[in-house]
Specification:
The structure is a homodimer. Chain A has about 290 residues and is α/β, with parallel strands linked by helices. Chain A is about 35% helix and about 25% strand. Chain A is built from 11 helices and 9 strands. Chain A has helices at about 60-65, 70-75, 115, 120-135, 150-165, 190-195, 200-210, 210-220, 235, 245-250, 270-290, and strands at about 5-10, 15-25, 30-35, 45-50, 80, 140-150, 175-180, 225-230, 260-265. In chain A, strands 1-2-3-5-4-6-7-8-9 form a 9-stranded mixed beta sheet, with helices on both faces. In chain A, a hairpin with a 5-residue loop joins strand 2 (about 15-25) and strand 3 (about 30-35). In chain A, helix 5 runs parallel beside helix 8, helix 6 packs across helix 7 (about 200-210) and helix 8 (about 210-220) packs parallel to helix 10 (about 245-250). The interface of A and B includes residues 16, 64, 230, 268 and 269 of A.
Chain lengths: ~290, ~290
């Protein structure tokens, strides 16, 4: 699993580096990711934020458009930008719709045999990427990880975070999301994707792939969650995101505004223009926990 | 020349709006531009920055990747993002190379009859866009304009600015550029483009389309210029940018560090990762003059 460096761009005194490697989690397909290393990483290991992108994105979109690098440089935090799915699996139907398959791996480990060899983004993000980065000797302190994401990647961030609390692994110190798919078992995007990837369908998803279900199970355990969504987001309006369901479930089991903060942002949409507006806020939120 | 609004995205409490109109300067072709209006534009007219993009870009690239909107919102300054050329002229050869023609109008008014009907980006940026924006009743104060740009757009910003001083129009209060093509009559990109667009070729370009020639002619008149370029910029290394020529010409006619500041940025390249690093600096530089 040797890393091949494809490019490097200096940014905010740090470096945005693109790597490629053959991923066993993704069935031995080549995958790429971007890593932002702030300048202070040349002196000592730095904490790390994983950023999970939304539907159709690659490892590049948020690195280019998210306005995250400046605040991360200022806080001295690295960011890993994975891809959103395996590429090149050649499975029938994986490119038929933009909401499922290529560019839309939903951060699950597939149990449907049709997808199980390649679609293992959960393992890719939580285990494989930390392992290959560590083995490459890059200056990341994996005892200090947090996670954030957008839309489908917000679903990924929330479920990976909540699962790591549920199972006692506590891999991530904090979680934030922009316009996350918050209750996928109850929205068309989630029902389609989880229904296809999991042999037990939506029922199987409840245990670990639905943020609203997960937060209900966790009542009592300390969490640090920040969510922003825009009221003019058309996917919010059409019921793909359902942040109110997540918020209600959190409040119902006793989480307050400090533990689970969900902000409705008036007039903002689903785009990177929305995300970049609140990007610095999210980075600073995580830095509080990563640098503690 | 009625403006058609194509989209609007809220960003940093302001709005990034995409417009389309039939441009007479570009030979009655449709053209598009983006306008960022900061929140304070709802109360009173705001000053404006014109941003000129580089080769192959459209009105979108810098709006998405430049990290300019946050600082502009903070300073209460609008930004106009024009396209980089006419599109759809159908002139033979205009799409043969990426450094000339479509996506590469070089901000000149063509005098070669082959291009003269459509390739008039100078008039488009300096006269037509202010006129259509004003006629649409948008809240821009055109008595307070400044200009900046990247690469070919840095050439555009410098030459439009210096020309408006040379001719006494003083349209812009300040000028800045990222990795500008600073002496086009002496680099391959400039020689090709100016040689094609102008019937008098490179010789004709000297009077108004070469920043190094222009600054030499201006000695004494007050200027406010900021330039950043990266030492790892491959186009700098291959001699397309020549910022040292511009700097030498400026110093030779007596401009000091305050009037003409040219900064060599160690290890940075030609990308938006470079530009976004220094974007806030440039916005704040212009705001000093626009808000005076």
């Amino acid at each position: 699993m040797a890393l091949e460096k494809l490019s490097s761009n200096k940014s905010f005194e740090g470096d945005l580096i693109k790597y490629k490697f053959k991923s066993s989690a993704l069935g031995d397909l080549d995958t790429q990711f971007n890593l932002f290393l702030p300048a202070n990483a040349s002196k000592s290991k730095v904490p790390v934020l994983f950023y999970l992108s939304g539907l159709t994105c690659t490892e590049d979109n948020a690195a280019q458009k998210g306005s995250f690098l400046g605040p991360a440089a200022q806080e001295g935090v690295a960011i890993v930008f994975p891809d959103t799915s395996p590429r090149g699996a050649g499975i029938e139907g994986e490119t038929d719709v933009w909401t499922f398959g290529v560019g839309a791996g939903f951060y699950v480990d597939a149990t449907n045999p049709k997808y199980a060899k390649h679609y293992n983004m959960l393992t890719h993000v939580t285990l494989e990427l930390p392992k290959v980065i560590q083995e490459a000797g890059l200056p990341i302190d994996f005892s200090r990880q947090s996670i954030f994401g957008h839309s489908m990647g917000g679903h990924g961030a929330l479920t990976l975070y909540l699962n790591s609390l549920r199972t006692g692994k506590k891999q991530y110190r904090s979680c934030s999301a922009f316009a996350p798919v918050s209750n996928p078992i109850n929205c068309p995007w989630g029902q389609k994707a989880l229904g296809e990837f999991l042999k037990g369908g939506v029922e199987e998803a409840k245990e670990q792939y639905d943020a609203t279900e997960l937060i209900s199970q966790l009542g009592g355990k300390p969490v640090h969650i920040l969510i922003d969504y825009g009221t003019s987001d058309k996917f919010y309006q059409e019921g793909q995101l359902l942040p109110e369901n997540f918020l209600k479930a959190a409040r119902d089991v006793g989480y307050d505004e400090v533990q689970v903060r969900v902000r409705s942002q008036d007039g903002y949409d689903h785009s990177y223009y929305f995300m970049s507006t609140f990007g610095a806020d999210h980075i600073h939120f995580h830095a509080n926990f990563l640098k503690a």
